[in-house]
Design the sequence.
């Protein structure tokens, strides 16, 4: 790679429960707020110098349509000269927005770009307007389960019997507890952009924290939850991420350009990879994508000192950890908790992983490499490997 | 808590009630430990029917202020619905008032409710997110601090209508921004065909303390409030009671009124000038009482009734002509002919061309005249690029 891509900064709106605190707020307004909050934090960046705005949404209609990348650039007050486009890779939308603009930066076409994602699952329920080709099932291209994410998580439990419900529940509880601790320590709030949200019934309010976390979660409580995807199954609302509304945004730049402008450098992109798996076990996707990315980077899993794994389902995270021989409660993994606690507004989550990883890098200069990874519907995984710019030497 | 039992006059249309909703905002994320009680004014309709204040709306705001105070917040703020803060008093009932006491009561109720925002002892903020006219702006003037959206228009059009800013405006504004600028807003702007202030004007005049872009106006306004509360931001107020400009300012207001009305003595500008003049020495309370009397006198006058009728005609009926066929029934105009190519015909042709965006044909008694008309229109178009 002739040019090095860096993460300058990343932010997000607080995440709401679908159709709750953002019920009266448009998706594009959430996205605009994230972008404006991001630019406000980076006054050295002249908006005119942004080469492109790549914004992801899994459902690109209504307030997530109209080429949301360009639309939010205009609505955010960016100069007319700044272009924008839309990205979709379902849950990995924002992650793909980041890798796509990074590719353009590394190639030399761009110097600076904004990447982000938004999902208002209250306005756009999962599967809205979906019209699967009848060939999928008629020709057995996928099993029916492949189209329902909860069912794919059950299938992952089937595939790896050692991944018990008890392990998934414990992982989920720890995610809640880690998030509660991170909130208590003021670590999550640092990257949240307070967001005005109107309710016709209640008037204007301001969202300053995530709505979904349940800090009082217990194993007993989790054990009693229903398993909506299969009778006597293992996947519950407690060990899954919820349905959420939120937006994320990041600035990516050529490292030389970032230095020239005096921008912060929070992480340095090493490489990335996407990989496919059987759609019925889509949650396994991060395993092959991480193997592929590590190979490209010439690294091994042992070189990675920090992990941000999206928690679509607890079983999918522990499947990943199990494969690489990492303990379910390894402190390097999701130190601030994850999507099970804060929520997973589909296409926005990729950048949330990155802003968390950037904070871990700041706090752990002894860590050299970290990864952000997530599973993707229809059987994929995406992994981005990052280098810690604060690294000062040490074991990893 | 204010109590009032105001019966609307016979025949008056039912009030579109502006509700006042209260929610807590945690200021922690904005750098100040504490909470702000945020009141939203919302009549439940879209921006084409702005928030207005009739008796029930005033009582709703009163209840909201009581509710907000009961939460013991560090500050109270008041904002509007999307695009609209408040367009002022509900004028629709005004021309049905038959008794002077009714009019005094409405004026007094407005004061009794609004003044709580200035007198409750808790810092108050108006986050003027959109259009704020007359009583709408006056709500904000009673607050201790004001922010304004860059796209919002504000003004005190009362004198234009034959009234006075009688819910505090005529008394508070001169004390806040001084006699010259108050005369500018209350008199000169109103008499100049009801000129509204753009946000930069309102900021420069000192009517508001800060302006923010609309897309995150509320967030920035709350951050402003937090920085005022924490002491990080200081808003200085000037005492204008000994300002040397009182006489000259009042004279300029009087001159403007005489000029506007061809030397006739018209009640509303005169009463407004009296109120502004009195505000130099009077307390707020004295000023508000005088406003009640001025408002009642003017409301009962024939000239106000005529003025409201005219206002209704040009503001509402012009936009929605009674009995006119539906726009959808109109044939699409694809070509327009203008007979004549003299100056007026050319101007009409230009207007038609620019508004209808379709070919316009001009005719005249000979080619030379027609050519001249077309050339003039082309020349005007060319000036635009």
Sequence:
């Amino acid at each position: 790679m002739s040019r090095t891509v860096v993460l300058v900064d990343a932010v997000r709106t607080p995440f709401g429960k679908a159709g709750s605190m953002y019920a009266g707020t448009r998706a594009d307004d959430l996205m605009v707020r994230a972008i404006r909050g991001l630019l406000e934090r980076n006054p050295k960046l002249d908006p005119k110098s942004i080469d492109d705005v790549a914004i992801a949404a899994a459902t690109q209609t209504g307030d997530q349509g109209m080429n949301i990348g360009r639309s939010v650039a205009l609505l955010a007050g960016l100069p007319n000269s700044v272009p924008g486009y839309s990205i979709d890779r379902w849950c990995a939308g924002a992650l793909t927005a980041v890798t796509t603009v990074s590719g353009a930066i590394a190639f030399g076409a761009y110097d600076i770009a904004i990447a982000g994602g938004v999902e208002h699952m209250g306005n756009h329920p999962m599967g809205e307007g979906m019209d699967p080709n009848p060939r999928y099932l008629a020709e057995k291209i996928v099993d029916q389960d492949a189209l329902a994410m909860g069912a794919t998580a059950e299938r992952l439990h089937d595939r790896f019997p050692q991944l018990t419900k008890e392990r998934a529940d414990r992982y989920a509880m720890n995610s809640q507890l880690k998030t509660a601790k991170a909130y208590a320590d003021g670590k999550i709030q640092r990257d949240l952009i307070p967001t005005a949200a109107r309710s016709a019934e209640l008037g204007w309010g301001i969202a300053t924290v995530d709505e979904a976390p349940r800090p009082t979660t217990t194993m007993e409580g989790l054990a009693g939850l229903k398993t909506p995807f299969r009778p006597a199954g293992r996947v519950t609302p407690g060990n899954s991420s919820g349905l959420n509304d939120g937006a994320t945004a990041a600035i990516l730049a050529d490292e030389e350009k970032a230095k020239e402008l005096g921008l912060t450098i929070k992480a340095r992109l090493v490489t990335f990879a996407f990989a496919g798996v059987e759609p019925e076990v889509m949650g396994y996707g991060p395993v092959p994508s991480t193997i592929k990315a590590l190979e490209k980077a010439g690294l091994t899993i042992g070189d990675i000192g920090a992990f941000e794994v999206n928690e679509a389902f607890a079983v999918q995270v522990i499947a990943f950890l199990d494969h690489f021989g990492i303990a379910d409660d390894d402190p390097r993994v999701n130190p601030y908790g994850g999507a099970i606690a804060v929520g997973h507004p589909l296409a926005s989550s990729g950048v949330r992983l990155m802003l968390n990883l950037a904070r871990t890098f700041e706090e752990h200069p002894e860590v050299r490499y970290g990864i952000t990874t997530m599973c993707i519907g229809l059987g994929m995984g995406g992994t981005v490997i990052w280098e810690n710019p604060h690294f000062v030497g040490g074991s990893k | 808590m204010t109590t009032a039992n105001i019966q609307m006059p016979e025949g008056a249309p039912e009030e579109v009630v502006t509700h006042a909703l209260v929610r807590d905002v945690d200021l922690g994320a904005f750098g100040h430990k504490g909470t702000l009680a945020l009141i939203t004014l919302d009549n439940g309709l879209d921006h084409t029917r702005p928030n207005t204040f009739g008796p029930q709306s005033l009582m709703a705001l009163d209840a909201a202020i009581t509710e907000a105070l009961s939460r013991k917040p560090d500050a109270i703020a008041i904002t509007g619905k999307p695009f609209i803060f408040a367009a002022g008093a509900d004028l629709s009932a005004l021309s049905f008032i038959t008794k002077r006491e009714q009019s005094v009561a409405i004026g007094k109720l407005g004061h009794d409710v609004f003044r709580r925002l200035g007198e409750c002892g808790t810092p108050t903020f108006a986050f003027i997110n959109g259009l704020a006219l007359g009583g709408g702006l006056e709500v904000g003037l009673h607050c201790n601090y004001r922010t304004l959206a860059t796209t919002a228009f504000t003004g005190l059009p009362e004198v234009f209508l034959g009234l006075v800013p009688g819910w505090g405006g005529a008394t508070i504004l001169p004390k806040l921004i001084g006699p010259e600028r108050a005369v500018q807003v209350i008199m000169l702007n109103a008499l100049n065909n009801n000129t509204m202030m753009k946000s930069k004007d309102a900021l420069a005049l000192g009517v508001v303390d800060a302006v923010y872009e609309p897309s995150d106006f509320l967030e920035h306004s709350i951050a402003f409030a937090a920085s005022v509360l924490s002491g990080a931001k200081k808003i200085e107020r000037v005492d204008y009671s000994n300002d040397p400009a009182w006489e000259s300012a009042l004279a300029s207001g009087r001159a403007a009124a005489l000029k506007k009305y061809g030397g006739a003595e018209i009640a509303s500008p005169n009463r407004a000038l009296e109120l502004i003049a009195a505000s130099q020495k009077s307390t707020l309370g004295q000023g508000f009482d005088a406003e009640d009397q001025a408002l009642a006198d003017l409301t009962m006058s024939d000239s106000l009734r005529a003025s409201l009728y005219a206002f209704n005609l040009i503001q509402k009926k012009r936009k929605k002509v009674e009995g006119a066929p539906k726009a959808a029934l109109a044939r699409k105009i694809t070509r327009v002919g203008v007979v004549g190519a003299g100056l007026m015909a050319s101007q009409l042709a230009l207007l038609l061309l620019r508004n209808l965006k379709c070919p316009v044909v001009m005719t005249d008694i000979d080619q030379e005249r027609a050519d001249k008309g077309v050339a003039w229109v082309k020349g005007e178009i060319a000036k635009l690029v």
